[in-house]
Amino acid sequence: MSVLAKRIANLPPEKRALLSLRLKKNRELADQPPKIPRRQEPESYPLSFAQRRLWFLDQLEPGSPLYIIPAAIRLNGPLDAAALRRSLQAVVQRHETLRANFIELEGEPVQIIRPHVALAVPLIDLQNLSPDRQEDEIRRLAESEAQRPFNLSQDSLLRATLLKLGVAEHLLLLTVHHIVFDGWSTGVFLREMGILYEAGRNGRSLSLPDLPIQYADYAHWQRGQLETEALQSQLNYWQRQLGQDPPFLDLPTDHPRPATQTHHGLHYNCELPLSLFQKVTEIAREEDATPFMALLAAFHVLLHRYTNQNRIHIGIPIANRKRSEIEGLIGFFVNTLVIQAGFDDESTFRQMLRQVRNTALDAYANQDIPFEMLVEALQPDRNTSHTPLFQVMFDLQKAPLTDVQIDDVTLSLQPQETAIAKFDLLLIISEGPDRVTAEFEYNTDLFDPATIERLAGHFRVLLDGMVANPDQPIATLSLLTESERRQLLVAWNDTAVPYPTDQCVHRLVESQAEQTPEATAVVFGQEIITYGELNGRANQLAHHLQKLGVGPETVVGVCLERSADLIIALLAVLKTGAAYAPMDPTYPPERLAFMLADAQSPVVLTHSHIAPRLAQKSSRLLCLDTAEPTLAHETAANPPARTQTHNLAYIIYTSGSTGQPKGVQIEHRGLLNLVFWHRRKFTVTAADRATQIAGPGFDASVWEIWPYLCAGASIYIPDDETRASPPQLRDWLLAHNITIAFLPTPLAENVMALEWPNESVLRIILTGGDRLHRFPSSQHPFALINNYGPTEDTVVTTSGLVPAQKQSIIPPTIGRPIDNTQLYLLDKWLQPVPIGV
């Protein structure tokens, strides 16, 4: 041990502690960077990088209220208005930036400092108004001030208005431009105003210690600093961290994103339980993190669950006041950092917290790069519809003190909300002594209020789940509130509607034939078939098929073009108790052969000109055109009932897009549900004229035939040339007085693009099969119904009216579940997703 060390060890404890503090202070002073120097006194000074960005934005959109900061201070007590004005004037005189204006000099923006600015503080007397009218007038004046633009080159960039509400009650409205102010500046301003007011109120001179530097000194120093090697190292960090392809956060929106970003905003506020915040704090402490980091990680998780994106960028503000000489300055110092999080299927909240903690600490260590310089260096694809590098921001704030005593006046800072949103979404969590609030600021051109309210509920549910089990995979955590879970899983799936199940569809057609045998059933070209004829010919074919061994659970192939014979064949197969498997004659022979073999069809109904495509030894071909003489000898009476609702009605083969075509088997009870829902939903009657346009191998043909035949309506079949030409098809629909038609989505969109006469009797166009991109207009004489459903669920699962409106990049919805059908939207982990996701 050295002699000096021995002497220190022998000192009394209190002196040894004092010496230790002095040594620590000396080390801190030695480690501090050089002070920011005072500038020389030219006539103008450069802008900081942050100021430069706001100046350019103001040039692009002069007078925009986007960067106006409003504040309202309630003053309760015997206010000395003259002393208040003097204190405000003194603060303006103390801080040069409050006397700054911004002009262009030789093509570059510069700031000029005026030696003196007289701050007007008009007094508006509202004390004679009723409480309700007073509040309305306060709101009107506050909103007017927040929207009144600043001229950066001429105006004082701080405005003050004093409202007299009562003998001892006032409200001070402060409005300042962000180019000379930030959130930290608010605290500096109010503290100095209070000290100066109290001094002036009590007759003391208005003075505060001299400021070590002014904001213009900082701006001048900053530009020189950015050329140093340390700053280049920070820039290299951000280039590595964010890469050259920052992800765009594609949140599900209620409205199409405008081509140019708008800033129309609203706020939604809610409380978080103090106990929940305490649990978040405990988990953060376990991971050597802060509550800010834990809440930021949770917000990352929420956005990941909303978008299913594995890279999420969130912007965070940082005070950027690390140096002691700028702590007491008013000015625009705040900087923005980008915190990136990456996800995989097994990530837990604890893992995400560790990741965000490490990323945030690295970001703090590299916080000196102005955000504007970072954007310029990374050069992301610039898109006027959103901000670069991130679209969502997060902040955690200590709630401001509600009451501050200045002399005998109580000062309360009132929350101010503006109708402005700088980003798609901003979440600010404020931590108070007895409550925690979450404020969501959102762009109203993207989101509806109900959507943000739901999102806030999901954030709360997610936080509850994460603190309850931080080691559970975040993919399996629920987002839904209990009320939303009941709505999605129960209420919206309460679709039970009774329907007759004692007769199958072919028996319903027989009833129509008995009641209206002369009514038109099918029209194909010049061929018109009545219900009596349709039923009789189908009966003859059914009796013949039964003699060939066809019966319940047998599958009969039907390979026919769209025609009256197709409908007769399908009806006949059902009358035997068998199921039919429709096959499009245009399919390749190999596909047809596979389907026949897979369905094990003992008999195939076809026409003689199609038969060569069906060279298949295991199935017997029955050509309806050449078998007419044989069938004419069969009885036209209805075959005895041999079918029950659990028997197969048909097999539809899918397209085979995932490999081999798959035969989907549908029972009569599913077909009956479709028929009765369709008849009820669209009020189908015997007076309707419907179309059969879909290919025979497409399950939509099922929908085009049975609901109408069971209701006694007429089915019209256009030829292939008409079906292929939207103008010809429109004219054909009009000429035949069609009232309801199914058109596959691409065809429906082309037909809707045509002009339509007002006198059309067409009342409904049903569509489905592809994503619908076109909305009908108010000029269309028909309603458009968008439908969706996998073949496995009997053609249609969901259905919904498409409202008439202007075109949109957001396609129409597919509607809600039909009768006796439940619908669940799940993510890839089979978790129910929220409304809109």
How would you describe what is shown here?
The protein has a six-stranded mixed β-sheet, with helices on both faces. The relative contact order is 0.08. The chain has 24 helices and 30 strands. Strand 3 and strand 4 (108-113) form a beta hairpin. The two termini are 70 Å apart. The protein is an alpha/beta fold.
Give a short summary of the structure.
By secondary structure, this protein is an alpha/beta fold.
Keywords summarizing the entry:
single chain, 837 residues, alpha/beta, five-stranded mixed β-sheet, 20% strand
Give the helices and strands, then pairings:
Blueprint lengths: L2 H7 L3 H19 L13 E2 L2 H12 L7 E9 L4 H14 L5 E6 L2 E6 L9 E3 L5 H17 L10 E9 L2 E9 L5 H19 L13 H11 L3 H14 L22 E8 L1 H13 L4 H17 L3 E8 L16 E8 L6 H17 L5 H8 L13 E7 L5 E3 L2 E6 L10 E7 L4 E8 L5 H20 L13 H8 L15 H11 L4 E5 L2 E4 H17 L7 E4 L5 H13 L2 E4 L6 H11 L3 E4 L13 E4 L4 H5 L15 E6 L9 E5 H14 L7 E3 L8 H10 L4 E4 L2 H5 L1 H10 L4 E5 H8 L11 E5 L14 E6 L9 E5 L13 E2 L20
Parallel strand pairs: 5-6, 11-14, 16-25, 18-19, 18-20, 20-21, 24-25, 26-27, 27-28
Antiparallel strand pairs: 1-4, 2-7, 2-13, 3-4, 6-7, 8-15, 9-10, 12-13, 14-15, 16-17, 22-23, 28-29, 29-30
